[in-house]
Design goal:
Blueprint lengths: L2 E5 L5 H16 L5 H9 L1 H18 L5 E6 L2 E9 L10 E8 L8 H15 L5 E6 L4 H7 L3 E10 L2 E10 L2 H7 L2
Parallel strand pairs: 4-5
Antiparallel strand pairs: 1-2, 2-3, 3-4, 5-7, 6-7
Helix pairs in contact: 1-2, 1-3, 4-6
């Protein structure tokens, strides 16, 4: 098994959407409306083209290097995105915006390595702290807590035409977190 990590390319859009789409199916079925999850799968082509446009936007903004993919034997099986904050309440913190690994590839250390790469990337951007939003019911919360993530608030998180609850997980010291992830 050959596992590799790299920054995303626009041409990765279908693989990236596949991971996003099916990770949500595997993780959120029963926590989100079935119609929404079904729509993500049933309109795969259209929705993957939205991913392509988003990646093109990131490339134009010079931020595509902050979108990471993990490939196993040439197939994208994990994705991670980090960026500057998008929440005024955490203006001095970097954001881990996405971290997904297909269920069949979990337990191989892929999520941990993507997480570590995002932490290093945020540190290189000058951040000392980080936050993320983890939807309530997502078992990944245990992973984030394992590395000393502190749930500091629960918010209403808008998705399409409905909202779900999400926990804000905060990391006080990225340097310490990076050491724990080694």
């Amino acid at each position: 098994m050959n596992i590799s990590y790299r920054s995303a390319k626009v041409s990765d859009y279908e693989g990236i959407y596949y991971v996003s789409c099916y990770s949500w199916e595997e993780t959120y079925r029963g926590f989100m409306p079935d119609e929404y999850l079904d729509d993500r799968i049933n309109n795969f082509e259209e929705r993957s083209l939205r991913t392509k446009k988003y990646l093109e936007h990131l490339e134009f903004e010079g931020e595509l290097e902050n979108y990471l993919v993990c490939e196993v034997d040439g197939k994208i099986v994990g994705i991670c995105q980090y960026s500057k904050t998008q929440n005024d309440n955490y203006a001095d913190s970097g954001l881990l915006g996405a971290l997904y690994v297909l269920k069949d590839y979990q337990g191989l250390g892929i999520g941990k390595e993507l997480f570590r790469l995002a932490v290093v990337g945020l540190m290189n951007m000058g951040y000392k702290t980080m936050y993320l939003e983890c939807l309530v019911g997502n078992k990944a919360i245990d992973f984030y807590k394992k590395y000393d993530g502190e749930i500091i608030e629960v918010i209403d998180y808008p998705i399409s035409d409905f909202t779900v609850k999400a926990e804000i997980v905060y990391y006080n010291h990225l340097r310490n977190l990076r050491e724990k992830l080694k």
